[in-house]
Specification:
Largest sheet: 5 strands, mixed
Strand order of the largest sheet: 2-1-3-4-5
Structural class: alpha/beta
Distance between the termini: 88 Å
Strand content: 5-15%
Number of strands: 16
Number of helices: 20
Radius of gyration: 32 Å
């Protein structure tokens, strides 16, 4: 007896709230019972997936079913039950026919339950005219989708135009999850959800401090903060889908993609970008101002470009990742380690030349204890504004960074405007357009000069070696926080912040672990630290003694170091 499989599909949220799925499953079960067939328990369902562009075949369950036939896991003489041909495809007629024939040519029998029609190669060879009926039904399904798409497109265009004219015109009730929609159309308004907006603000602050998306998520999960769902109805729908697929309802979790989307949405400062690239200002209630948003994007972009993120493990192993260079051969320095064969012995981690490790340089594996190097350098780098890592208010350097980010955004916007005008002039030469282009290009000159000046100021501030009492005290508090961290998540978050602060001030650390200079002169081991403004300072003879560590670990009071 041939195996019988049922395929269900619906494409819209409205259908998921109704009885579409239950109806399709029930019809399949009734057909099998009436015809003495046994329905295979394996489920193939595309829930909320459109068949208009062929996604159900390309990425969905129908495609998985056909791959199962090709691999032999599903017999090629099986029967496939569907409610109607439009569940299989709503693509253009010839594309839909290709999907249909792909099913038939595999040896399968396709049965449509709504009209009790059966299709296979034997029947179609004997009654070829039935193909015209198939094409007609598929053309009708595609036509319905095309018409619906045109109506939706026109409706959205009207909503966008109304919102561009007046930002108080609500385009859709589907909004960022920290915003509530109040009232009914056409008088709907937006309001911040106070609890969720506070969490957004906290996530933004963590991101600005240098904490990565994955650590943010670990922090939220560790604190038991549930992931958001749009509504109780959405949660019920998700739970019902899980049950329909034969599994227990799964709790929603925070996803890196959602945190990334949240932190890059213009909605954070109240704007929205619509189709065509138009930005509507003051559309949503803001969580921050635009300058802070630009600053956040600049920080995250810099970290992404320099690849300073670290998703591996529970902690940030190397606070100076990407900065360390061997002073003897210019290869990078990396963290390595070894472990004694004795049971329970810890792994000893040290920094050594990667060129020596690979045998591609003349260096030897002269290591520098990772823990010792970290302690030494954190004491040396007291010029970094550690204070903001432990909750102190934003400093002047943050203000200057925000100014630089704003200037960079203005330059980008002006350059986009220049490119658009140049493109427009290719098709129509207009004196007015030429004048606008000249004015815009002229405005770019002072903008770039201001940007360069601001960048130099910021670099100077970032590399100042003040060693002030306040910064040393802040550094002490960080050491204490790391010592008393109650979880690996908390420790990792703090170390990510510390690593981000170091990378904002330091461009490179050139290490000389054997204590001789490149010219061969004997010396204590040292590090040449190059700051972002190009200035270089030598760290030598800086060592943290056991007494120093006792001082750093004290729970009360702040005592100045003895050296």
């Amino acid at each position: 007896m041939s195996l019988v499989f049922s395929y269900q599909r619906f494409s819209s949220e409205k259908q998921s709230r109704g009885h579409s799925l239950a109806r399709q499953k029930s019809d399949a079960a009734q057909y099998c019972e009436a015809n003495g067939l046994v329905l295979d328990p394996r489920t193939f369902a595309d829930l909320g997936i459109s068949a208009w562009k062929g996604r159900n075949v390309r990425d969905g369950a129908l495609g998985a079913f056909l791959k199962g036939v090709d691999s032999g896991r599903i017999p090629s003489d099986s029967i496939l039950l569907v409610e109607a041909l439009d569940r299989v495809s709503r693509a253009k007629p010839m594309e839909a026919l290709e999907v249909f024939m792909g099913i038939i040519n595999r040896g399968l029998t396709l049965i449509t339950l709504s009209d009790n029609q059966k299709f296979n190669t034997e029947l179609l060879n004997g009654e070829w005219y039935r193909l015209s009926m198939v094409i007609g039904k598929m053309a009708q399904a595609n036509s319905e989708n095309e018409e619906k798409s045109n109506r939706v497109t026109k409706a959205w265009a009207s909503r966008r135009n109304n919102a561009i004219i007046d930002a108080s015109n609500v385009m859709t009730a589907k909004v960022p999850l920290w915003i509530n929609v109040e009232g009914v159309r056409p008088s709907q308004t937006f309001k911040l959800n106070a609890e969720r907006a506070a969490l957004v603000r906290r996530i933004v602050d963590m991101a600005k401090a240098g904490i990565g998306n994955h650590t943010i998520i670990k922090t939220l999960h560790a604190e038991g903060i549930p992931a958001w769902v749009r509504s109780a109805r959405e949660k019920a729908k998700r739970d019902e889908m899980d049950r329909e697929l034969g599994r227990e309802p799964q709790p929603k979790v925070w996803e890196p993609a959602y945190i990334q989307k949240m932190l890059t949405q213009r909605a954070l400062y109240g704007a929205v970008e619509v189709k065509g690239g138009t930005v509507i200002e003051n559309y949503y209630p803001p969580v921050m101002d635009e300058q802070e948003f630009i600053y956040l994007q600049a920080l995250r972009s810099d970290r992404a470009k320099s690849k300073k993120t670290n998703r591996q493990g529970d902690g940030v192993t190397n606070l100076f990742s990407g900065l360390l260079t061997c002073g003897y051969c210019q290869h990078r320095m990396g963290v390595t380690g070894y472990k004694s064969k004795k049971a329970g012995a810890p792994t000893y981690k040290y920094i050594a030349c990667h060129g020596a490790r690979l045998g591609t340089s003349s260096c030897r594996m002269n290591g520098w204890s990772l823990q010792e190097f970290e302690d030494d350098m954190l004491l040396f780098l007291t010029s970094i504004d550690y204070g903001r890592l432990v909750g102190r208010a934003a400093t002047s350097i943050d203000t200057e960074r925000a100014k630089l980010a704003t200037l960079a955004k203005q330059i980008i916007d002006s350059e986009v405007g220049v490119a658009n005008l140049v493109k427009a002039l290719e098709s129509s030469v207009s004196p007015a357009l030429i004048k606008r282009l000249d004015d815009l290009e002229a405005s770019l000159v002072p903008l770039k000069q201001s940007h360069d000046k601001q960048a130099k100021l910021l670099a100077s501030l970032a590399s100042q070696d003040g060693g002030s009492k306040g910064r040393v005290q802040a550094l002490i508090r960080i050491f204490r926080q790391m010592k008393h961290a109650t979880s690996e998540v908390e420790r990792r978050a703090l170390r990510e912040q510390l690593s981000a602060a170091i990378n904002q001030a330091v461009k490179q650390m050139t290490m000389y672990p054997v204590g001789r200079t490149p010219k061969g002169t004997k010396a204590d081991r040292f590090v040449d630290v190059t700051f972002v403004n190009g200035a270089t300072k030598r760290a030598e003879g800086v060592e943290v003694s056991p007494k120093d560590m006792e001082w750093l670990s004290e729970d009360e009071g702040v005592v100045q170091p003895t050296h």
